[in-house]
Amino acid sequence: MIVVSDTSPIRALCCLGLLDALPALFGETLIPPGVANELRVAVPGIGALDVSLIQFLRVAAPVDQQRVAAFLSTLGVGESEAIVLAIERRADYVLMDDRPGRAAALNSGLTPLGTLGVLVRSKDARDRDRNRPAD
Question: Which comes out higher in pLDDT, residue 130 or 105?
Fold first, then answer.
């Protein structure tokens, strides 16, 4: 499964102490350089995240910088790069909470999934595991 994330789902899951939901659900999560840079900036209550220390996050740059520039007219760098990277990698999901970003992702043929969707999927997976008969 290929998943690309914007900044907000990673920050929100980190704040909730549930960042481990990402590798449990998706394995590796791709983030573009713009998202990596945003995560390195400290925010109140969370601080800065050193993405090089988070094993399941892999930084990958989108190739089509003209397409990124087109999205920059209405979206931030992280959202723009995440959408283009998701298009290029044919991602199963692009993790994004921002409404304009989600709309742009949908218009680009992508499947956006927000923090709440990740939490629901994580809960459902834990419930399935609890109800699975022991071998």
Answer: 105
Q: In sequence order, what are the beta bridge partners of 47? A: 43
pLDDT in tens, 123-132: 998 888 777 6
Using DSSP, state whether 118 is helix, strand or coil: helix
Q: Which domain, by its residues, includes 14?
A: 3-129
Spatial separation of the C-alpha atoms in residues 107 and 110, rounded to whole Å: 7
Instruction: Check: CB of residue 95 under 8 Å from CB of residue 3.
Output: yes
Does residue 123 contact residue 21 with C-beta atoms inside 8 Å?
no
| Total of domains in the chain | 1
Q: State the Cα–Cα distance between residues 26 and 92, nearest whole angstrom.
A: 10
- CATH number for the domain spanning 56: value is 3.40.50.1010
pLDDT digits (tens, 9 = 90+) for 52-75: 999 999 999 999 999 999 999 999
How far is Cα 33 from Cα 97, in angstroms, rounded to an integer?
18
pTM for this structure? 0.91
Residue 134: pLDDT band with limits 50, 70, 90: low
The dihedral sign for the CA sequence 117, 79, 28, 16? negative
